[in-house]
Structure formats: C-alpha cells, structure tokens
# Entry
Amino acid sequence: MNPFGGIVQKAFYLGLGLATVAGEKAGETLGELRTQASKLADELVERGEMTTEEARKFVDDLVRNSQKPISESFPNPTNKDEPRTISIDDEEDGDSSQPVNDVEQLKSKVQSLQDELRRLQK
# Structure
C-alpha cells in the first residue's frame, strides 16, 4: 500500500468533517438569525410600527441577505481587489507659489537650527 494513500485519505476525511461541521454551524446561526428577526418583527407589529406583511418581508429579506457572500453585501465601488488611492492637494485658491515659499522658509529654519546645534556642541 502507498504510504501517502493513508495521509490523503485522512486529509479527505478531515476536509469532509470540517465541511460538515461548518454547514451545521451555518445552519444553526441562520436558524438563530431567523428566530431573532422574527421576535423583532413581532415586537414591531405589536407596537403598530409595522404590518404583518411588512414583518414577513423584513424577516425574509434579512435571511436572504445573510446568505449572500460578503462581496455581494458590500460591493467594492471600484470593482477592484486593491486599495483605493487617495490624493491630497495642498493648494489653496489656486496659488501654487505659497507652498514653495513655505518650503523655503522651513529649509532656512532647519538650517539655522542645525547651525545653532553645531555651535552649542562645540
């Protein structure tokens, strides 16, 4: 007998067992969701905030939406699987000379601080 045959068979049974457990858990969770949604809908009907037909539709929609994959529930607006890029514009009122002046002022301030630091270190 092939020594890897037993490993493959065990891996198959492990996968099958995990799939079964996951299916049972999903069924339990879906059942709990339906029960909680029904209780909420019943309370809203009792208060008169919702009709019986609206409550039934609410529960059905909630359960149907919970069964959809996450990608369908929260669609990516760019339809890409990559992060959005964000650009930051520093210009105010179309005056492009202002940031250049600020940069020059900052450079001169840094230079003066470096000179002072060197003087103090001596």
